[in-house]
Amino acid sequence: MLASLSLLVFVHELGHYTFARLSGTKVEKFYLFFNPWFTMFKYKPKPKPVKEGETPKASWRDTEYGIGWLPLGGYCSIAGMVDETKSAKDLGDKVQPWEFRAKPAWQRLLIMIGGVLFNFLAAIAIYAGMVYVLGEQFIPFKNATEGMAFCESAHKIGFVDGDIPLSADGKELYYYSTEDLQAMLTAKQVTVLRGTDTVRISIPKDFIFTANKDAEEGQLFMSYRLPVVVSQTQPNMGAEKAGLKSGDRIIGVNSVSTREYVSFTEQLQSNKDKTVTIHFLRDGRQDSARVAVDDAGKIGILLTEPEKVYETITLNYSFFRSIPRGIEMGWEKLSGYVSQLKYVFTADGAKSLGGFGSIGSIFPESWDWIAFWSITAFLSVILAVMNILPIPILDGGYVLFLLIEVFTGWKPSEKFMNVALNIGFYLLIALLLFANGNDIYRFLIK
User: Fold this and answer.
1) Domain-embedded: residue 411
2) How far apart are CA 265 and CA 273, in angstroms?
3) Dihedral angle sign, alpha carbons of residues 16, 17, 20, 26
4) Tens of pLDDT along 296-338?
5) C-alpha span between 184 and 207 (Å, rounded)
6) CATH no. for residue 204?
7) Chain segment 27-65, per-residue pLDDT in tens
8) Which of 58, 100, 175, 418 is most buried, by CB atoms within 10 Å?
């Protein structure tokens, strides 16, 4: 976890640094990790001699590069800017041409979005590199034994959760791809396997527009039904205490069959703060255990990805084809995460917030390069989204004030920024305490 977050913090601060240097703005310090009271390592280049009559310009030599001891982030201290390292009173009365405050608004805007931009580009680069080196795994429809889950609009025209797509207007459907999805939505008739029966479903004319509208609202036409196979259990929660192990496949809760994730979570939600009987398969044999469900409807398991449960096929990419696929994957992760942010402001969403413990729990217990880069790419997207939120002290707070300046001409004073940053700092600390407090509560009490 520390290696992943360190890399992402470095990339983020490098974005600020790069745009500052491109605009001729002086960067005073560039640090990985924070360094209150003392520094583990630092390097300050010798300044370049200035010839007589020559105007001093910002240079990479102006920057002190270092590594702090407190691994909670990093910072890029930019000359002439009120931030977490400097208050308004630390700025000189005379504005120097190499300072942040001396630059036009559009250049300051680029400097501030540089970190977010670099994080998103890093995610794209990682995704593109992964599909180029490893290819991309797909689950053939015929191998998805639990079938597909469909949206409400699909249900209305005859699809049933668990259906396995076979063909669209006679054209065989292979796996969940843009091409096969398009074929289903534009077909006159789609054939599916429902249990042991072959069923034909008529697709209304222009149904693709309905499906596209649903997708914009976060309702995908279909998705793979996810079998409930335990990847790992979380400490001190019901599943671990009951003895569930990695590889166990949950097939029922009490007397209700729950062979896929949606029905499983529905049963847990209806049994909050209760103890239920979990039926599962282990090494081909059926067993059961009494498991406590917490007040959020959780038993403390991480699921195994469907690619590790179902038999897959691999699609290989050339170097030039991997780049647009990386962009597509980055955008999918970004839009998906943004669409889920609204749930943070609900009671259950607030309870599910986690800090460093939750981040650490998503990494596998043993080293796995593929998992490391996949999780790092997703965390890079999360870091970009969280930093662009319009909260003072985050990049998004600066961006908000800069956009106001661009469109209205009003530029907030250093004193105003100082007050706003203090408010943002306390809000951020409160959020960090709440998120990490949730982790401690789940670990020690729940």
Assistant:
1) yes
2) 14
3) positive
4) 899 999 988 888 888 888 889 999 999 999 998 898 888 877 7
5) 10
6) 2.30.42
7) 999 999 888 898 999 998 988 776 766 667 788 888 999
8) 100
Cα atoms in the 13 Å half-sphere on the side-chain side of 377? 23
Q: Do residue 278 and residue 189 come from a single domain?
A: no
Look at residue 163 and tell me if it is in a domain. Answer: yes
- Residue 427 pLDDT grade (very low, low, confident, very high; cuts 50, 70, 90): confident
Residues 164 and 214 in one domain: yes
**Ramachandran area for residue 158 (φ above 0: left; ψ -120 to 50: alpha; else beta):** left
Residue 215 near residue 221 (C-beta atoms within 8 A): yes
**Of 161, 195, 224, which one is at a domain's C-terminal end?**
224
**Packing angle of the helix pair 369-387, 105-134 (nearest 10 deg):** 160
Give CA separation, 348 vs 84, 133, 363, in Å: 32, 39, 23
Angle CA 310–339–4, to nearest 5: 65
- For the chain, give the number of residues: 446
Q: 192 in a domain, yes or no?
A: yes
Q: pTM for the whole thing?
A: 0.69
Give the Cα separation of 238 and 275 in Å (integer): 9
State how many domains the chain has. 3
Q: Are 109 and 407 in contact (CB under 8 A)?
A: no
For residue 226 the two structure tokens come to: 């996810």
Contact present, 299 and 442 (Cβ < 8 Å): no
- Report yes or no on 62 lying in a domain: yes
d(CA 351, CA 238): 17
Examine the domain organization and report whether 58 and 154 are in the same domain.
no
Q: Is residue 241's pLDDT more than 90?
A: yes
| DSSP character string of 35-79 | -SS--SEEE-PPPPPPPTTPPP---GGGPEEEE-SEEEEEEEEET
- C-beta of residue 203 within 8 angstroms of C-beta of residue 150: no
Show the domain range for 255.
228-308
Query: DSSP 3-state assignment of 277?
Result: strand
